[in-house]
Amino acid sequence: PSTERQHEMLRGRVTIPICDELGEPVSITGRAVHPHLEPKYWHLPFSVSSVLFGLDKAWPHIVKVRGALIVEGAWDTIALHRVGYPYTVGVLGSTIKTPQVILLLGYCKRAIVLPDHDVSGAGLKGAQMTVERCKMYGMEGRIAHDLAYSGDPDDLARQDPRHLAEILRAA
User: What is the DSSP letter of 111?
Assistant: First the structure.
């Protein structure tokens, strides 16, 4: 898209940088401030498969706990860091890509995937694909989910952090 179009897409959104594992900015992502603004999330083009959102901040914690918590997006990652899960990374999509698994393998061999719980079931399907891809590369992978909850990890972290803790413990 043209620079003008990119600026227009970021209008009305809270924006933050997307950084690689070294903390170098590779793009910008934005979340709509108003519910009527579509799409809800948008980012400037970049190679999504080469980045795990938040890894630049999360890697020391991932090494310490010998595992990572994987979510879909940047906002989920930020929310989980804020409520005490600093070993969280976001795949910036519904499922992890092979280069992201290889990147994560440099820090741990174990991952828990916390999917979005949407009506379509796409979040859970993406989580299953993420676990399968992790296992293909020798990582242990599990899904943390609660069928009684509908929403995304960002909402759960803000609205009910105790329930979030229960879901993660059960995984």
Answer: E
Residue pLDDT, tens place only, 119-158 = 678 899 999 999 999 999 999 999 998 867 778 899 999 9
* pLDDT tens by residue, 5-15: 777 778 899 99
Q: Provide the strand spans (E) within the chain.
A: 13-19, 25-32, 41-43, 68-71, 88-90, 110-113, 140-143
Whole-angstrom distance, CA of residue 5 vs CA of residue 151: 30
Measured in degrees and rounded to the nearest 5, phi and psi for residue 124 equal -70, -40
CA distance 141 to 129: 10
Q: 128 with 143: CB under 8 angstroms?
A: yes
Residue of 93, 150, 148, 147 lying closest to 119 (CA atoms): 150
In the numeric block, which tokens belong to residue 76?
A: 């989920």
Total-model pTM:
0.93
Are 60 and 11 in contact by the 8 Å Cβ rule? The answer is no
